[in-house]
User: What shape does this take?
Amino acid sequence: MNQAETATIAGSFIAAGCTVVPPDHDCDICVVHSCAVTAHAEASSIRYARWFKRRHPEVMVILAGCVATPGIVPATALHGIDHVVPQPDKFRIPELLGMASGQTDRAAPVFFTTRALLPVQDGCAFRCAYCIVPTTRGAPRSRPMPQLLAEARHLVHQGFKEIVITGTNVGTYRDEHHTLIDLLMVLDDLPGIERIRISSIELSTVEKPLIEWMSRSDHACRYIHLPLQSGDNRMLARMRRRYTVEQYRAIAETALSAIPGLGLGTDLITGFPGEDEVAFQATCGLIDALPFSNLHVFPFSQRPGTVAGDLDNRVPQATIRDRTRHLIECGQTKRNTFAHQHVGQCLPVLIESVDTVPDTSEGWTDTYLPVKVHGKGLSRNQIVKTCIDQWDGNHLLGHP
Ligand code: SF4
Assistant: This one.
């Protein structure tokens, strides 16, 4: 979500006549688009902004985004940063600086990747016990469908082949009576679109119709990310998640049988307060039972301002570290198994960078695996049918 919004912030500066450069280039203004999802992410955002200002005192440093939400961090923590721009104002920074007249429309996003992100909504009202997002981003708001279609058309016209649907909680998308599925069906018919990827979908939203749409669509990427967090019902209730282990498993199995070759990703939290050995083993059991291709494992860290910040029954740090390491290892084993199933197949790969080493390009399958394609004359942003020869533990290796 932050990446998608960063592209819109970049677009607002370009619309104001500026040039946007990568982080390691000289600049006059540096915008740090911050993240507060964990205490660690929050501290990193602030540390980077303050470090940048100390190192380049002549540059105007602006901290925007979640960390800039009033009340999230004390003002003293932001000392030295030139401007702090909270969420509602971050898409009109040039206007606030007097560099552009009143911007009425959201600027067209500018991406430096081959995949374009389409943020369809912002905010969340689910209030999971560990999550600060409902505080930093507020209640859910969806963008109007006509605006999204215009943006998607613009992206396709610019040559983007893959559009990634993002949001804070995309399954809650609503524009009057239209749901996320209505939006996807219209995007599916957009001339020139080649791939539509869904970033992540929460259970208890529109996961069932989404799976049906994915199984019918010619453009849906065969990858679904269903955040799990824990494989133990007591922990899910303590986390204030809206599903049980049984419901999660049923949805995952429905998706896997409806969409052949599907990549299945998830998020897990280790060491949430109250996670005893029984609960952790239940998580391991569920991970073992389902053919995940991608595990994001997050060690629990206390986040002030969340319900979990005050929960008792803390798990010792050493135990959290061990559990995290164990799940990461399980994730790699499962990823290897999934990736090996691609060997011998010929699959479309979207090329992201060319000649990373001579005559080798890198890209992604629709199942969300990275591929090194050995061959001459490939171009960035080209979809190349690639015959997969092997998996080296990090990449599929193949040739056109
Ligand atoms: S669904 Fe839960 S974890 Fe996701 S943004 Fe909303 S509150 Fe946070």
